[in-house]
Amino acid sequence: MSKLSLYTFLLLFVAISANAQISFEQQDPVLQKDSARIMIRYSLVENNVKPGDYYAKYNLKLTYTQDGGATFIGPLKNVKGAVGEDLIAGKDQAIYWYYLGEGNAFNGKNVEFKIDATYEPFLGGPLNALRSAVLPGWGNMYVKSLKGWKKWRWVGTTLAVGGLIGAGLYLNQQANNSYQEYLDATTLDDTQSAYSRASGQRLLSTVSFALAAGLYAYDIVKVVLRGTKNKLNKRKVIKKNLERRQNVISFGLNPFGPTPNVGFSWKF
Question: Are residues 105 and 135 in the same domain?
Answer without folding.
Answer: no
